[in-house]
Amino acid sequence: MELIHFTVAAIMAVVTGSAPIPGPQQCNSPQAVFKILSEQYDRTEKIDTVEVQVRARTKHHRAVYREEDGDFTWKDIEAGERRGESPEQFAIGNIEPDFAERLCRLVEVGKLEGYEFGITRGFADEYRQHIATGKKAADDKSYHGSRPELGPGHGEAVDIVSLGDDRADVLHNNDRVWAYIDRYGPKEFGVGRPYGDNDSPHVGPVDGEEYLTKHGDEQMRIARTSFSRPTLCPPVRPGPYCTPCLAGLFAKANIYVLLMRPLAYLCEL
């Protein structure tokens, strides 16, 4: 019944022109990408659990860390003001454009499949990296944008968490969001988590230096050749009602409305 309702709604939206077709085709311009990612950024509480060093490493003792929750909303505000930019312009507008488009498609397809991706941190220049806390790269070594060879407009990392009604809900759903990225991100969207659970929220392009350095020569080959960026059609995965061959045909057909998305649901059952 839900499939019927979805199909009818899609047909009416297309025929009447009353609403855009939901999905990654909304990421078809830099302005649209910026708007969608900024909305996710604004909806995300900038609260994170970080490990704060309480005792430095010595010859005879390991460094000691403790976990703390902190609100770091002010950091992007302050860093943006130093550059004459709003927090959204600073954190989202300075992400490398191709990477930003991939993130946009991840966000939009994720919404269709019941996943809400929040962005706690985007671009970070050297000053923003300096005021970051916890375990972090050196001030001029972060792929968030502080590396001299990257610079403004070329941030190649974001931190992604789940959206939720409260902090407990976010923490409960984080693993689900990260598992989705691990499973579908590299091949279907061209993004992945280079450090896995060692830095769970950290996401970058799979053909970027950071990801390739962490995943070896074989992963480099896969990362550069395997993922096919979604266009009009969300990813279609094989299921008991859809053979892998048929699923691949639908994915390559690049047709989203009317029949393809309901069939995609059948494939995922």
Low-confidence stretches at least 5 residues in length (pLDDT < 50)? Answer: 1-23, 229-261
Structural class: alpha+beta
Write the CATH fold name of the largest domain.
Answer: Muramoyl-pentapeptide Carboxypeptidase, domain 2
Largest pleated sheet:
4 strands, antiparallel
Helix-residue proportion = 40-55%
Note the gap between the termini: 15 Å
> What gyration radius follows from the Cα positions, in whole Å?
20 Å
Q: How many structural domains are formed by the residues?
A: 2
- CATH class wording of the largest domain: Alpha Beta
- Compute the number of strand runs: 6
Tell me which CATH architecture of the largest domain applies here.
2-Layer Sandwich
Provide mean pLDDT, rounded: 76
* SSE string: HHEEHHHEHEHEEHHH
Widest sheet, order of strands: 3-4-6-5
Count every helix, treating DSSP H or I runs of 4 or more residues as helices: 10
List the helices and strands and how they pair.
Elements: H1 2-16, H2 30-43, E1 47-55, E2 64-71, H3 73-82, H4 87-91, H5 97-112, E3 117-121, H6 126-130, E4 158-162, H7 167-189, E5 191-192, E6 202-205, H8 209-225, H9 244-253, H10 260-268
Antiparallel strand pairs: 1-2, 3-4, 4-6, 5-6
Helix pairs in contact: 2-5
Please supply descriptive tags for the structure shown above:
269 residues; alpha+beta; Muramoyl-pentapeptide Carboxypeptidase, domain 2; 2 domains; four-stranded antiparallel β-sheet; two-stranded antiparallel sheet; 10 helices; disordered N terminus
